[in-house]
Specification:
Elements (H helix, E strand, L loop, with lengths): L2 E6 L6 H14 L3 E7 L13 H11 L3 E5 L1 H4 L3 H14 L4 E6 L4 H13 L1 H13 L4 H12 L13 H15 L5 E6 L18 H11 L11 H14 L5 H13 L3 H4 L9 H11 L3 H8 L6 H13 L3 H6 L8 E4 L1 H10 L18 H16 L3 H6 L9 E2 L1
Parallel strand pairs: 1-2, 1-4, 2-3, 4-5, 6-7
Antiparallel strand pairs: 3-6
Helix pairs in contact: 2-10, 4-8, 5-8, 6-7, 13-14
């Protein structure tokens, strides 16, 4: 069976994701679609709206054949490491191709951009350093440096100011750097861009827009037009069971407790906390009652909102610089769910896998990366501040991969 991969968060699974899944299957002519999905914390440094099991169920009901968890250390990393972990797992699963959504929609533009940056690597890095010394954020420095080296280029290039284009570039970079044979494909995002607010006249909205509607309105009826029925029903079931959705506002009391139980100095040990941000974070936690007011006190031109949220995620889970530096590549494959086709595919490649397949967490409890996933899951459930969340602590040891 020919398999193709997609890299996802599904926060939550919406109509745009369904379009991407269906078009990816057609474009790659694949029998099996494998999703590498982030767990309970996401690349933008946020807790997921609903847990990984609910999002796995959404994916399977929509047509994904196999869902694999992207370990916490990669799921919450900067774009290049996020991409590296995901592509490594898809390659390990013998995928022939992967397909990503992008604002660009042209694979040639991505390949031209990769070649340009590779050929001008020294000048590019020098320009990045120059811009950062002027006090701009890292993403802005990247974009300004890119503009400099691409000024006289006539070939089509990718706009690297767009979030999905950035991820797409890093997927291709990872595939080439890891020396894989997995082939990239891309499809163009339709109607809604990453940060766009949801429009009631459309049936496709970004996950960001959908979450904003949900949190602003306080109920699910406003997001129903943007979701497959199976996703809407899964969210209804979650709401009725968990009584709360994951967000930093919901998690803030526990985050605040964790910050203040440390000293300013000890906060600096956590991944991505740098350049004195430990002082700003600790000081803001002593006076801020809400997450929004907390963030407004510590935001700066130097660090993007996303970068600060990733710092907070690592403080919340107590993931240190030392652990980050020890993390190179995923060390296991953990299925979260599969249908019959996905199960048959996994069985067919099982003997050829070079990474251990972890279906029972208890049997692999010594794996350091897996321990991070378990810890992150437990803290996620505590952050929900509900009886359901309390009951779900330790669930990674009790829940087997979903089979449909």
């Amino acid at each position: 069976m020919k398999a193709s991969g997609i890299i996802v968060e599904y926060n939550p699974f919406h109509n745009g994701h369904l379009h991407h899944l269906q078009q990816s299957r057609l474009k790659t002519n694949s029998e099996v679609m494998i999703a590498v999905m982030s767990g309970n914390f996401l690349q933008r440094g946020e807790p997921a709206l609903v847990d990984k099991w609910t999002r796995t169920k959404m994916a399977l009901l929509a047509g994904v054949d196999l869902v694999i968890e992207l370990p916490y250390a990669f799921a919450t990393a900067q774009a290049s490491d996020f991409a590296k972990g995901a592509i490594f797992l898809l390659d390990a699963l013998k995928c022939k191709s992967f397909c990503f959504g992008s604002e660009e929609g042209s694979l040639k533009a991505f390949l031209h951009t990769y070649d340009l940056l590779l050929e001008n690597k020294a000048d590019y890095n020098t320009a990045i350093s120059t811009f950062m010394k002027k006090g701009v954020s890292y993403p802005k420095a990247l974009n300004e440096a890119y503009k400099l080296i691409s000024t006289d280029v006539t070939l089509p290039l990718v706009d690297l100011s767009k979030p999905n284009n950035i991820l797409g570039y890093h997927y291709i970079e990872a595939a080439k750097t890891l020396n894989t044979e997995i082939q990239p494909e891309t499809i163009q995002r339709v109607i809604a861009n990453y940060h766009d607010e949801a429009k009631t006249s459309e049936t496709i909205a970004s996950a960001t827009g959908i979450r904003k509607v949900l949190f602003d309105d306080g109920d699910l009826t406003g997001v129903q037009p943007f979701l497959p029925l199976t996703s809407f029903e899964a969210l209804m079931e979650w709401q009725n069971t968990a009584n709360s959705f994951g967000s930093w506002e919901r998690f803030y009391p526990l985050l605040r407790f964790i910050i203040l139980r440390h000293t300013k100095e000890s906060l600096a040990q956590f991944a991505e906390v740098t350049e004195g941000m430990e002082n700003a974070i600790w000081n803001a936690a002593t006076t801020s009652i809400t997450f929004q007011s907390f963030m407004e006190k510590i935001k700066s031109k130097r660090f993007t909102w996303t970068r600060i949220q990733r710092m907070l995620t690592h403080i919340f889970t107590e993931f240190t610089w030392k652990q980050l530096k020890e993390t190179e590549l995923p060390t296991y494959i953990r299925p979260l769910g599969m249908n019959k086709k996905g199960q048959a595919y996994l069985q067919s490649i099982k003997k050829d896998l070079e990474l251990p397949l972890v279906s029972r967490v208890a049997a692999s409890k010594e794996n350091k990366l897996l321990q991070l996933d378990i810890k992150a899951a437990n803290l996620y459930y505590l952050g929900l501040q509900s009886s359901f969340g309390q009951q779900m602590v330790g669930s990674d040891f009790r829940i087997a991969p979903i089979r449909m």
